[in-house]
Amino acid sequence: MELACTKKLLEYIGVKPEKISAEVDPLFEWTANLMVVNRRKTIVVVHAASRCSFVLHGMTVKHLKKLPEWILSGVRSVLESEYVRQEIVEQYLNDLGREVSFRANSSRKVVASCNKACERLEWCSDLLEPEKLLQQSIQLWLNDDILSGGKYIQAYEALIGQLQERYGENIQTCRALELEISLELYTPCKRRVIVPDNLNFYQFHNVLQACFGWKDCHLHQFVVEVDMEGIPTNLIQPHWEEFEEFPGVQVQSSTDVTLKDVFSSRTRIIYEYDFGDGWIHTIELCRVIEDCRETYPHCTLAVGDAPMEDCGGPEGFAHVMAVLQDKDHPEHREISEWVRSTWWQPLNVKRINCFLKDAHRKRMPIIY
Questions:
Q1: Which residues contact 35 (CB under 8 A, 6 or more apart)?
Q2: Angle between helices 155-167 and 86-96 (to 10 degrees)
Q3: d(Cα 70, Cα 76) in Å, to the nearest integer?
Q4: For residue 365, how many other CB atoms are within 10 A of its CB?
Q5: pTM exceeding the 0.70 threshold for the entire prediction
Q6: pLDDT tens across 183-217, in order?
Q7: How far is CA 213 from CA 208, 209, 349, 353, in A?
Q8: Which residue from 354, 274, 269 is spatially nearest to 317, judged by alpha carbons?
Q9: C-alpha distance from residue 121 to each of 41, 42, 281, 332, 360 (Å)
Q10: Which residues are CB-neighbours of 178 under 8 A, at least 6 positions away?
């Protein structure tokens, strides 16, 4: 592997660059830059053709001794985070070359791609984990950036497309769960989704928000276990939100627990959203899919319109829908105008799946 480096990075690692190869296959062209983030030296490595990237944060002299190994680990992590089959990952690394050398970067276009990735990293600098060198927690989000050029395509889609051209169509797989989510209303409202089982519960929260058209305006939590009286004893909550603590109740952070952790030992949990309106979602495990080729969340069944935000719970939603259907109702005009102001949409599975495709690509909130 020949890693194209900026002058600043070459000086930092103390490596005299090797001669530039006459041609570099775009599929195997990676470039790197050095920057300082949170007062720590950080190397950003970018796949030039797709602009997918990975980050080594907190570089020290000790890390420099094993920099080639970290570079290959980063490339591997990019592929594995997109659920590329293990045999394809190994084939790519073989074709890339498992011995890393360093050369000067002479392409302005490639340098520009690297600078873009560095700018994107700065937006989520508060999420960098000081105790880890390879920053895998932000990788999915970094790589869903939209590429310029007129065609709406994201960086990870570009990478997968390029890999498919070289290695064939069937290059991705994941272990997935099929879940049925039922929202407690006076009319049926449920969604059946297939999701990778390694999503954490913040990512799954985003999936549920997309399924029901919620705007993430209120507190939420997952109820994993209850006692004989129906009182929660095991909760999953966002650690950045403030909840009242109760003795004897186990609370875990939504970014630390995965679907696999929970559904390996149970088949039913509850998702609560907006404690004022009180939206209760019952989530049931339908089946485990060991080799799922659709490696992002997708909805396979949808029944019933979901409510709009702040409509007053199940009773309020039932009232709103009844008024909308009765043009002679004295509140019809007022309610209709309010519903339009909420940007509420009736059930549309295609629209749900459009939002679902990228709903899981942030492992924790990123403040723009």
A1: 41, 42, 44, 118, 121
A2: 80
A3: 10
A4: 15
A5: yes
A6: 999 999 999 999 999 999 999 999 999 999 999 99
A7: 8, 6, 11, 11
A8: 274
A9: 13, 10, 35, 48, 18
A10: 192, 193, 194, 285, 286, 287, 288, 289, 300
